[in-house]
């Protein structure tokens, strides 16, 4: 909405332009609808009667009753006036009037509403042109300018007005523009508005503005400009294109109001809403908003340490010296912390004597060094009103994502660690738990060496047989990656695979597993043993990479027939079926087998399962381990469902004959587990296959 506040000075050139196109009448009404002034410029004797009427101080309904010949005119005026007020902007319309002779006259009308500072209606300025017979209407230009210059004097006192040609070259500015920009008219005319460009707005901002006005449309927005003396000011801007007969803009009128103070007030309101009144630091509200957004944007690769700092014995200061002194102490502490931390970390006042410091993407060692710096800041006393205060702090630390992936968990754990730190003594620092610290240290060590292991392909594959339960024959194997760390020994996949996923190493690692497994299977086949399928686990992260291209490339290079490769995907992928199903279908078109691993752990949407082009379901080992309880019902349900879907079932984690018998009675087709064989190196698989082949012969 354009808030014109007071009458807007559009300048002599603007008035001349308006009068060139709107030459029949100009009138003004106040905010209550009373006619204040009317001027007509026409040879039409019927319209000239308007000047002879006593309109001043009267409203349209009263005038309809008094002047019957113009009853329709006043009725239409009232309705279109109201529409202009509701639009709250420059409004253009056509109005049709029958004069007292019954002749239809058509007017092209522009109505400009003006509002008081409080938003209430002030005055309505109306420009009208009789377009019934344009060539017959001529206007006395001298009188037209004289009449409208009365408006210019009033409008020039309150508005910032500029006129540019179609290229944006300034052709006119009023005195208010010069006063705001600190440039003279001679310095502005012939230039573009780049002369007052503050650099605050993007190129896209102005590109969109020009796109709008070049289409002949009005543009409105707030712009931050830079004056000649280097000061900045804000203006609420409306740019109105003036178009030729072809509808092409040939010049632009910019009408602006100074809203610098308004913007300052809004910025202050935002500042106070997000900053602590005592210390000036960002407050708890800002902390929650900013950190929640950061955690959401950095779920995969971000690292964060949250330091919960509490001043020791601060309550004693408040209780003995009063809250006013306590506030001064808090202010002094925050100033010292902020001065030291502003380029290293984010600092917030959480409440009371509690502060939160956030370190992003730092190692544990860096966090520890940082806490030493903080403690050093408290080694010197705080001087307040000739008093020295010797303070100390306790710091509790939690880390993302290790200690939690949501802000509430991180704050809670850092707070708990802080209370443990208080029990340790002055300036103590406590990570969420000592065990956690050991785990982080181990993790960091694994992260450093895992990347090297991927580059050097320092892994091995073991293979666990998959057996036809009824014939006891090996019909497939699952390839399982193994990593022997040079100093930490054997690292379980459950520990290093998540690290690989978090650090972007899962793609090259999976490609190595896929290629090694396929090449090994091809070697077994060429050695003369009966062919079996080989299963490879595929991380959900691979679905965001070129998984299809990877599989195609490996099959081509190893020359393994696609039907001897089975890709095992996790059940969690079923949570995003619209993205996953097209990829699975394309993989299926390559001829490979697809299975869902660890099925039944709770992520599946059975409604979508029927649409997944899978060959088998692998029942999670947790259900097989607990067949004596309700897990038996779940297993039976999964097998029945798979039968109806015409997919096979592999039961993982079979370790006892009792489990095997139970599954056999349910017509479970395939099994895998230590009952048949533990995961073994490739040479042992060959021996098992040769032995099985010999028995069969």
UniProtKB/TrEMBL annotation:
Domain of life, source organism: Bacteria
Residues annotated as domain EAL: 443-693
PAS domain ranges (all copies): 147-192
Residue ranges of domain PAC in the record: 91-143, 217-271
Pfam assignment, any one: PAS_9
Residue ranges of every copy of the GGDEF domain listed in the record: 302-434
NCBIfam families: GGDEF (TIGR00254), sensory_box (TIGR00229)
Protein name as annotated: EAL domain-containing protein
Organism: Niallia endozanthoxylica
């Amino acid at each position: 909405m354009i808030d014109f506040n007071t009458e807007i000075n559009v300048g002599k050139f603007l008035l001349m332009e308006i009068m060139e196109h709107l030459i029949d009448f100009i009138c003004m009404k106040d905010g209550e609808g009373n006619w204040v002034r009317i001027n007509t410029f026409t040879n039409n004797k019927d319209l000239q009667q308007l000047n002879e009427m006593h309109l001043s101080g009267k409203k349209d309904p009263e005038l309809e009753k008094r002047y019957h010949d113009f009853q329709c005119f006043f009725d239409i005026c009232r309705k279109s006036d109201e529409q202009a007020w509701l639009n709250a902007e420059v409004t253009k319309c056509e109005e049709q009037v029958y004069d007292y002779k019954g002749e239809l006259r058509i007017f092209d009308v522009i109505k400009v509403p003006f509002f008081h500072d409080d938003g209430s209606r002030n005055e309505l300025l109306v420009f009208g042109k009789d377009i019934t017979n344009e060539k017959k209407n001529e206007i006395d230009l001298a009188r037209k300018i004289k009449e409208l210059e009365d408006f210019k004097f009033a409008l020039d006192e309150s508005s910032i007005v500029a006129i540019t040609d179609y290229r944006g070259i300034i052709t006119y500015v009023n005195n208010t523009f010069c006063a705001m920009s600190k440039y003279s008219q001679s310095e502005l005319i012939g230039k573009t508005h780049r002369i007052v460009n503050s650099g605050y707005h993007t190129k896209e901002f102005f590109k969109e503005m020009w796109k709008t006005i070049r289409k002949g449309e009005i543009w409105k927005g707030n712009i931050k400009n830079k004056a000649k003396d280097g000061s900045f000011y804000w203006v609420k801007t409306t740019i109105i294109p003036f178009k030729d007969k072809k509808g092409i803009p040939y010049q632009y009128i910019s009408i602006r109001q100074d809203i610098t103070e308004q913007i300052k007030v809004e910025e202050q309101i935002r500042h106070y809403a997000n900053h602590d009144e005592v210390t000036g630091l960002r407050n708890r509200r800002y902390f929650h908003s900013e950190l929640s957004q950061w955690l959401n944007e950095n779920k995969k690769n971000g690292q964060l340490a949250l330091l919960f700092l509490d001043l020791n014995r601060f309550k004693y200061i408040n209780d003995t010296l009063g809250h006013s002194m306590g506030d001064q102490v808090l202010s002094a502490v925050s100033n010292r912390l902020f001065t030291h931390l502003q380029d290293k970390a984010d600092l917030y006042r959480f409440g009371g004597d509690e502060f939160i410091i956030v370190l992003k993407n730092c190692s544990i060692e860096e966090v520890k060094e940082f806490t030493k710096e903080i403690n050093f800041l408290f080694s010197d006393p705080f001087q307040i009103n000739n008093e020295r205060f010797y303070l100390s702090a306790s710091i509790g630390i939690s880390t993302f994502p290790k200690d939690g992936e949501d802000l509430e968990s991180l704050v809670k754990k850092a707070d708990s660690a802080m209370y443990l730190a208080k029990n340790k003594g002055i300036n103590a620092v406590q990570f969420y738990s000592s065990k956690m610290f050991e785990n982080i240290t181990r993790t960091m060590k694994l992260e450093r060496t895992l990347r090297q292991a991927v580059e050097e392909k320092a892994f091995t594959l073991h293979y666990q047989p998959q057996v036809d339960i009824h014939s006891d024959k090996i019909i497939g194997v699952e390839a399982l990656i193994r990593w022997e760390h040079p100093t930490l020994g054997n690292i379980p996949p459950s520990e290093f695979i998540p690290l690989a996923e978090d650090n972007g190493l899962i793609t090259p690692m999976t490609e190595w597993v896929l290629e090694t497994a396929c090449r090994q299977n091809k070697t077994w086949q060429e050695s003369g043993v009966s062919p079996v399928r080989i299963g490879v686990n595929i991380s959900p992260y691979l679905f965001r990479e070129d998984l299809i291209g990877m599989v195609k490339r490996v099959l081509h290079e190893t020359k393994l027939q696609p039907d001897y490769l089975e890709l095992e995907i996790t059940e969690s992928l079923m949570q995003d079926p619209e993205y996953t199903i097209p990829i699975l279908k394309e993989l299926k078109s390559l001829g490979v087998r697809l299975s869902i691993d660890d099925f039944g752990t709770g992520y599946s949407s059975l409604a979508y399962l029927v649409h997944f082009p899978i060959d088998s379901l692998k029942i999670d080992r947790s259900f097989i381990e607990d067949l004596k309880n309700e897990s038996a019902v779940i297993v039976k349900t999964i097998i029945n469902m798979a039968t109806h879907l015409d997919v096979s079932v592999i039961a993982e984690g079979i370790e006892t004959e009792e489990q095997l018998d139970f599954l056999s009675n349910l017509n479970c087709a395939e099994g895998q587990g230590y009952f048949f064989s533990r995961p073994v190196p490739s040479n042992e698989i060959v021996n098992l296959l040769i032995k099985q082949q010999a028995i069969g012969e």
